[in-house]
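Here is an idea for our session: we take a single protein and study its fold together. Once you have written the record down, we can walk along the chain together.
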Amino acid sequence: MSTRKRSPETAAVRGASELEKKNAPVTAPIYQTSTFEVSDNEEQIRVTTTDRYYTRWGNPTITLAEETVAALEGTEASRVFASGMGAITTTILALLKAGDHIVAQRDIYGGVTKFLSEWLPKLGIETTFVDTNDYEQFARAIRPNTKMLHLESPTNPTLRVVDFKKAAALAKERGLISMVDSTFGTPINQRPAEYGIDLVMHSGTKYLSGHADLTCGVVSGRRELMDRIDESRKTLGNCMDPHAAWLLIRGLKTLAVRVARHNENALRVAEFLEQHASVRRVYYPFLKSHPEHTIAREQMSGGSGMVTFEIEGAGEDACRVSEAMRLFTLATSLGGVESLVSIPVLTSHAMISAEQRREMGVTEQMVRLSVGIESVEDLISDLEHALEVVRARVTVAVGESRSKK
């Protein structure tokens, strides 16, 4: 068979498996075991460096999941974890030590902000937060002890887009490890490693899984870095369960077709919202009104399934809209086949201070949509119904105000 490099669509379905015909199960088996038998103690010593020793150290099902993601991202290796936060925290703890410094963009997931600003200082690791797209500010923030550049693109929930070429070039020039949370982007829409980013992280709970039935995280990059991260994962015990790894493999097989539909539906939803009188602002990378629209079009093949908008009104109006939706399910998380709605100040960014949220531009009027793969006409109809609730309330409020005058 031809050795031509496989496309992401093929890698998602076939993973790292060989395509030659063989008498084997079409679907990879689950090695649902905590340990592996050996014939003697010499073999016991030999298998300690393999995935057939002890599942906290490795497992064939976990290995297949890792090799599949690495093939998707175009990296040398990947490692999977029990959660997305586990992937980020283990990676940072593996690569940094007391006295080191991180430069991180300000617009990132609230849980990571909390870890960088409240937990790492206890270990002697400092973080400087900078404006997401001010690369001169990134450069000025770098110190002699800076070791890592932490990024997220598109960002949660404002969907800002980082210029991977500029960020990677700065990191390489200053000898830093660059890491990006690419959860919103997916390896179908963007492949940061191709632009020189060292580590690509995903909350695999979201798009990689796609069915809201598992929790996991993934980090991909150079094998040398992956080996260092793997050692810390073994010690911290932040491994992935074999059955969860199997669910991840199954989800990845439909990633490309799901993401194509997410992209299509989300763009339609964003265009609808941008024209609605009850909507103050819409955040979506493939809208021309987006501040990084040009770079998004250059380095992304799709705008993702995430759409955020601000309602005309108060925070309580945003809550009313989210509660009035019938097809969009009110729930945290994202990236599944089903459409979800959440209020960032109450979910993804509830664990950080109001001041930090203000600096990120996360407002009480903000509504975040994870646009699923349902009929887009049905989704828009649901949004029309929900927005009518706010429009009617504002109309009544204006009428009452005028009558009092």
About this structure: The mean pLDDT is 93. The chain is about 40% helix and 15% strand. The radius of gyration is 22 Å. The CA atoms of residues 25 and 236 lie 34 Å apart.
